[in-house]
Amino acid sequence: QIQLVESGGGLAQAAGSRRLSCAFSGGTFRTDAMGWFRQAPGKEREFVATISGGGVSTYYADSVKGRFTISRDYAKNTVNLQMNSLNPEDTAVYYCAADRKYDPLSYEYAYWGQGTQVTVSS
After folding, report:
1. What secondary structure does DSSP assign to 24-58, as a single string?
2. For residue 119, which of 4, 22, 5, 38 has the smallest C-alpha distance?
């Protein structure tokens, strides 16, 4: 039973930075692809970034490319999202997800965290 718990959300200022973390438990961390998604008020859930089980392959949404970086720490069983150059459009609930297969074009992840709120002020 895989469980994912996000942390690191909160208030941030425009042009600032924040790091989100997702703790993975209940499975074999290195075999699962990990992804970050977000959902802003009144909008559909959108893809943010994904990373393969081995950590070599990554893929980003155009809206965050060059600003956000996804990484994983095998010693801590966590996946991180470093967010730089934040703007108010980044305000959303951010969700961590896991799946056995790495498919950067898929939204169908098997496991999801509860989400963490990120609010960026202007």
Report:
1. EESS-GGGSEEEEEEE-TTS--EEEEEE-TTS--E
2. 38
When the pLDDT of each residue in the chain is averaged and rounded to a whole number, the result is 96
For residue 95, the one-letter residue type is: Y
Rounded Cα gap, residues 14 and 18, in angstroms: 11
DSSP string, 60-73: E-TTTTTTEEEEEE
3-class SS of residue 14:
coil
Distance (Å, whole) CA 67 – CA 31: 27
| pLDDT at residue 77, as a whole number | 97
Per-residue pLDDT tens digits for 94-104 = 999 999 999 99
Mean pLDDT score, 32-36: 96
